[in-house]
Amino acid sequence: VAAHIEQAKLILKKNDLGGYTVPTHGLYPFQWNWDSAITALGWMMFDEARAWKEIELLLSGQWDNGMIPHVLFHKDSDTYFPGPDVWGSHLKLKSTSISQPPVLASAIKIMVEQCQDKDLLKQNLAQFLPKLIEYHLWWYRERDPENTGLVVSYHPWESGMDNSPAWDDALAAVPAVTWEYQRRDLNHIDSSQRPKKKEYDRYLYLVEFFKNNQFDSEKIYANCPYKVNDIGIISILHKATKDLLSVCASVNLQDDALDILEQKVKLTESAINQLWCENDQFFYNRDVITKQLCRVKTNGSLLTLFAELADQKQAIALKDLSTSWLSASAYAVSSTHPDSELYEPQRYWRGPVWLHINWMIALGLEAYNYPQLSEKIKNSSLALINKSGYFEYFNADTGEGCGGGDFSWTAAIALYWLL
Ligand code: DGY
What mean pLDDT comes out for the span 235-253? Predict the structure, then answer.
């Protein structure tokens, strides 16, 4: 264990570009939103000042409207595509024009509980909390303008679960870009572990669509050809909003915006059953344009446990399903249920195991008082590191490491569990 801890710390240090941590060198050479939030948690276990710095740099990319982008292009790099020119980034700190699962406030709540240096904590919270409030208001205001309680997502990259089969049908309705481009991810990673060209063609169409609409929220909400209720984002946002409210209360922060966030929490709780399928006993993602549930079982739905959005009956159903899900593949929890015909154990979000998702599912199971199952997921995750090292994700059948190596969030989750 001591050797694993040392190695995980070394990975964060090696991936540190002076205040922010790249997920891995080469494949992802910038600061990613949810990667950074989770990585800060890892830093917190052994270097508090550095942990807060990670958050400071992530928040430095916040847009005037409150959005925290999915990627901040702090320094140029020619190892990644699409870069700031394709995104049409016009700000001083260049960025993408979508966000990512907002796990940041949940990471911060844990950091608040863990940190020893209370002066540093106080200084940082004073600076960060107003920005976090703006970020959460942005999600509810811009991504749920009709006040339904269920925010929409505009891009598979925003879900963080890029080529999940949950998005197949919604993405198929998006036109393909007509220009030629050179992917760079395939210079680093075998194509059998990455999304296909038909998906990239549509990812890029959407990037251009945002640019052509001058990033105007109203126009994009009205006309975007891809709009989904992403159960992963909805769950993570819900949990993070509650965590943000709790951190604000702990420092007696007064702000009218907190009442708005309280109302949004209640609204989501009353709306979530629209995504529950009684027949399948499962929460699904939904295509907002066709109004159809995306009926593929993916691990994002288990994040309703992390968010504590499931009622007792639903939680029992999800716990039972998780138990059979765990036994259906050698390593758990596969990102797509192994019984699905769309399951591919090595292809990015179509089957592999991701440790940061396991971490959230394990916390959720603990919250619903299923400590044994939670422990099983943690042990299955640590077994993957033992077997293969700190990879981006893992083949759910063989445990082989996939994607980028020496990966920051995998190291951070290990530090969280082992320290
Ligand atoms: C990529 O480029 O693969 C990333 O997932 C985008 O965020």
Answer: 98
